[in-house]
Amino acid sequence: MLAFPNANEGFPKFSAATSHQVTAEERVTAIDFVNRHNFLFEEFDTKKLLTTQLPEMTLYHMYGHFKGAEAVKDFIESKYPPLIPGVTRHATNHIVDRDNETGGVVVRYHMTLVRQAWPEEAGKVTTKDAFEATGLPGIWIYSAVVDRLKMTDDGWKLYSRINGSTVVNKSLNPGASEASKKNVD
């Protein structure tokens, strides 16, 4: 019996053994790239964020399938703004294997989006004082993710991102803070 029988649906298969086809430098720089890419969402500089992908990049997301730089750009600009304020991204348990189709690497990891503040209060989180909030920080979204990366003259670039099995804590959705305030009043 599988713990999560559908959790890896659509993902490339991976081996239980560490791939010796991937060099230590490739492994380290691929993980660093994934972490940097995910950290860029906190800046939400769309132009800078889009420099991390190839023109033919494909994105498989709970909101749909997007192919090509323009489609991904439109998706990020139209759907992501509510997913940004007060949220940090944390990628863990990276597994790096050779992508036999492209010659690049496949990085599989767990992604958690942590709500540290409600969108309307995100500006209050500063380096000057500790921000206090009841019930926060909290894990808002969990996703299993696979990034397929290709090496370019500028370093790794995203060829494909698959956001797989996803669980959302509805009580941390944007607007949930207003609903909870109304229930208290």
From TrEMBL:
<dbReference type="InterPro" id="IPR032710">
    <property type="entry name" value="NTF2-like_dom_sf"/>
</dbReference>
<dbReference type="Pfam" id="PF13577">
    <property type="entry name" value="SnoaL_4"/>
</dbReference>
<protein>
    <recommendedName>
        <fullName>SnoaL-like domain-containing protein</fullName>
    </recommendedName>
</protein>
<dbReference type="InterPro" id="IPR037401">
    <property type="entry name" value="SnoaL-like"/>
</dbReference>
<feature type="domain" description="SnoaL-like">
    <location>
        <begin position="25"/>
        <end position="161"/>
    </location>
</feature>
